[in-house]
Specification:
Layout lengths: L8 E2 L3 E2 L1 H17 L19 H24 L1 H36 L4 H5 L3 H5 L1 H9 L10 H9 L2 H10 L1 H18 L15 H16 L2 H8 L4 H20 L8 H7 L9 H17 L13 H8 L1 H21 L4 H30 L6
Antiparallel strand pairs: 1-2
Helix pairs in contact: 1-2, 1-15, 1-16, 2-3, 2-10, 3-7, 3-8, 3-16, 8-9, 8-10, 9-10, 12-14, 15-17, 16-17
Amino acid sequence: MDIMSEETKSSGRGRDLRLDLFRGMANWAIFLDHIPNNVVAWLTMRNYGFSDAAELFVYVSGFTVAFVYARMMRVKGLLAATAGILGRVWQIYVAYVLLFVFYVVAVGYVAQRYGHAHLLDEYNIRRLVAEPVEFLKHGLLLEYRPLNLDVLPLYIVLMAPFPPVLWLLTKAPSATLAGSLILYIAARWLGWNLPGYPSGSWYFNPFAWQLLFVIGAWTAIVDRITLQNILRSGIIMPLAIGIVAFSAVVMVALRTGNDWLLPETLRLIFSLNDKTNLAPYRIAHFLALAIIVARLVPRDAPALNWPVWQPLIVCGQRSLEVFCTGTFLAAVGYFALDLIDGSITSQIFVSVAGIAAMVAVAYFTSWARESQSRPLRAG
């Protein structure tokens, strides 16, 4: 998610467009993936590897939060950085509450107006309709969430306690990363998770997903020479390519119903693809992709300035607004396909129209912010 307009700038080097580009891709992918039975979603990374856009979002979020607020901490102190982080948490929470309300109203209206009661169950709002006060209360506490509204609560819970973690990262980055890894292992081993309402637990287990958030933050803070030495190690690139290739073979076989081609052991291990507790192979796959991209696309790559990437980059820069828009439009797109026409042509039209709307929102919010920041001139 975007932190502020300056979030991916560094002193004297300009904005790192790679973060915006891939965050924009993640926004588009999440929109496409949230439309059930959408043929266009076959373009997204979840079909060709263990990880998907969620890992990209969490990693980039950790990177940008650490990048921005570590500098603020150095210049203005821990208290100012803490105030900045908690202020951003509040903005995301307000955005989530607004999205929650519009989302529930849209689902409820379509279900009741057109007699599609199954939508109430699919989007997990039937009991909210029956007991609105109790479920809204737990919704505001982030304990109850309708379908596909899990990412922003995860982001809020990861950011809220981050100030002391950021301070530790600036003092002892490797030790802090090791502590995050220990928490991850303990959460998976002992079954730690936050409770959901009225039952169950969080779809994205914060105790597990914090590891990827901290890895992103560690990447932003660790000494550049150390990081470059890791990336340039002779074994790293072949290993990363091997992981990505293996993941693609396994997931394509599973997604296309050809899992009989895989040994039984592989089917048992990877068919579940534990996203809730962030399976280790999901982390390995994402980091392998990140390593390949970092090696092939340097931050000063001329191709990043090609006009064709501009819509994606702007969507990445206005990520919070675009994410909320995409999540809402994914539900609207599904309603259209379910109520009117679910043909492949309609799926393509809904996907393209939704992405066009997300791009329009991104450009509009960018224009609005730039207009507000310009000084007024006397007539």
